[in-house]
Amino acid sequence: MSLQLLGLPAELLHRCLYFLDGYSLLNCRRINRLFNTIIKQSTALQYAIELFAACAEDNPSCALSVSEKLQRLHRRQDAWHRFIRHKFISVDVQHIPSGIYDFTGGVYILGEAPQGMSRFTSGLKYICLPSLDELEDDKEVQIPWHSMETKDAIVDLGMAIQEHDLIAVVTQRTVSSDPSYTRDIFIEFIQFSTGKPHPLASKPMFTVYHNVEALGHASIGIEIVGDLLVLLLTFPFSPTTDDRLFVYNWKTATRTIVHTAHPNTYTSFTFISPTALVMPNNRLATLELFDLTAIGARATLIPVRLNLPALRLRCRIIRAACRGEPNPAPAGLNHRSDQPFHDRAEDALIVFNFLIQQQPRAHGLIAVSCVVHRSTLLDWFERRRYADGELELFWEDWGGPRGTRWFDANFVVTRWVTTTCGQRFAVVKEDGPSRISVMDFNPYRVRRIMADDKALPEGVEIPAKTVREAIRGREKRRAFAADGIFDSDMDMDEMDADYEQYGFALYEEEEGVWDEEEDQERVRMDMVPIEKTEEATVWLNCLPTSLPEDLEVFAIPVESSLPYVETVTKRRVRFDAVLIDGERIIGMYMDELHDRVRKVDILYMG
């Protein structure tokens, strides 16, 4: 007699379900009442579902119980959504910082300059931020600065602390200054926890480039994932020096790839998988996706090219910066962390900040930002890397309008690119005081809100009862505006009477409810206010938006529609920039020249 699955004891069914992912568990809840009951009554299965919905993954090294992990996950998600600040700490910068910085895994690091006006970096200073659970509510916290020294001038650094307990420091040494300026460039591998040479590096220091002759300073981009270290070396003020991308196995000090390009082609890159990366090509206005599994120092990198929106004639990208946090890690690699969970790298956002200029250079710089999920780029890379035919895709063909969201960044701070973590993207306006905006691009949260019958907050002047009705009303209002109905001579009272039945009010009426100009702009963008708390207003943006045409740098209208939920604080802060990780916002105060960090505030969100 064959045994039916549903005939198994509930304990065995639970054990079978335990090995499913969150998405499969949600589907199993729909099978019948028995499955639904087992899943709903199991803390472990509910935790798996909530991790999936939060685009997070469990940290098996954390000793907390599943119920405690689930509670903390709920607390974190709620805190970010409603901007609930659980703890606040201020830290003064007690040294003269240079322009080098990084922030990842709770470690905030700044370069140290030897004297006031110098951009020279002689050492590194860092603070290790405690997690929220390590802080006592009624106790004042003092966070000390620690030092890290090197023999040579520091150019940049890369961190893989959670993955390898590693900091890779790029240094340079002057070889000759007469008749021409030449230098050697090195990488030094330091174990973060001890400050000593890293024990897994066969060579604690090796030469990247010997006797390089170039004008001006070297610009470095460096990332470490698994055994791979990728270093981008450019000289922005040397028009005859090629851009170079080096790929190493950092443990064996073996160089596997060198990729060269014309000067001023590249300025940044980030990983999209443990063995692939994306690099904006400034000359071609494309995103280039590279496979790093090629072996041999002379291996040729052939990119998959995703075109960006076409630029106008004589316009070009001057600089691109990109970042995705956390970095993807090879399978089976454990986090060196006591956090109960982490954001999933595979689902994380990548932000691209572009500076565009119309030639000649007398024209001003135009700043725009674009966000896209790492998985979107990786999906196209996997589709095209082995395909026959063209490896270049037009903007519309790879789903750019649907899979990205573009922002006019001329009035927000873009100098610091460490503004995303997981699904979240934080910004503040320039020339503060400013409200903090945290945008959440989690597709599951957005989808749930869009389908929800949750009541709208009071006092928003929207003739609809629920979020879903308000979305339909905004779609109808857009359709009416496109048809030119709002330009008619219809009496305003008649308009109100006619349009309320469709679930929307006229733009002018709805804008009048909001005191802040930026909130009125959100109304004009057809965003839906879905919640108002003491600390913040929460908005939903699920309809397409376009970059302003008066930017005058794109040849086509740039429309994008990646949906997101935006939490905007009611209070203004005097931060000159913000950085984020999974549980904190760092607000930075700059000096009078807006050049160096003098103080940071750490806001603990959960």
From TrEMBL:
InterPro entries tied to this protein: F-box-like_dom_sf, F-box_dom
Record domain F-box: where: 2-48
Pfam families linked to this entry: F-box
Domain of life: Eukaryota
The name this protein goes by in its record: F-box domain-containing protein
Lineage: Eukaryota, Fungi, Dikarya, Basidiomycota, Agaricomycotina
